[in-house]
Specification:
Blueprint: H1 3-24, H2 31-62, E1 67-73, E2 78-85, E3 91-97, E4 101-108, E5 115-116, E6 126-132, E7 136-145, E8 148-153, E9 157-158
Antiparallel strand pairs: 1-2, 2-3, 3-6, 4-5, 4-7, 7-8, 7-9
């Protein structure tokens, strides 16, 4: 068998192998769309973080508004938080998470009720807490993982 015949035989074998895999384990129909959306979301998150840092530093020069941007991650889940002051003296926390989240809760370290934004989680992983009292708190998330559900918890931070 010459080299040309070997290449033809290999191509036929690979074509049959591809056909078997396409039958047994086809590529998900929405895989490309999900990957494009995920990459776009990563770019948006980075751009938002950069704009927030720039806006926050300029806003402090022009007004009395307090803003804070925090980012937490554990290698599989990343959370970006933007904390801003309300006129009433409370805080608003806008957040974005890059994982499949089932629940988002804000747990104050001092006495106070835990706040729940689970019902408001958007498809893009966006959530928000309005009228958060200033103080030390932490964010707790229930994240869907391959082995079930796991908890992601930030360190304590001050709002």
């Amino acid at each position: 068998m010459n080299t040309h015949d070997e290449h033809v035989a290999d191509a036929a074998l690979f074509a049959r192998l591809r056909s078997v895999w396409e039958t047994v384990d086809p590529i998900p129909v929405d895989l490309v769309d999900r990957m494009v959306a995920k990459i776009a979301m990563e770019d948006i998150t980075r751009e938002y973080a950069l704009l927030t840092l720039v806006e926050g530093s300029l806003a402090n020069v022009r007004s009395d508004t307090d803003t804070l941007t925090l980012q937490f991650g554990d290698g599989t889940t990343n959370v970006l938080l933007h904390v801003s002051a309300n006129e009433s003296g409370t805080r608003r926390i806008d957040g974005w998470v890059d994982a499949a989240v089932l629940a988002v809760k804000l747990a104050p370290s001092e006495q106070g009720a835990e706040l729940d934004a689970s019902a408001d989680i958007g498809d893009s992983g966006r959530f928000a807490f309005d009228d958060v009292r200033p103080g030390v708190t932490r964010l707790r998330l229930a994240v869907r993982a391959s082995g079930g559900i796991r908890e992601f918890q930030t360190p304590l931070f001050e709002v």
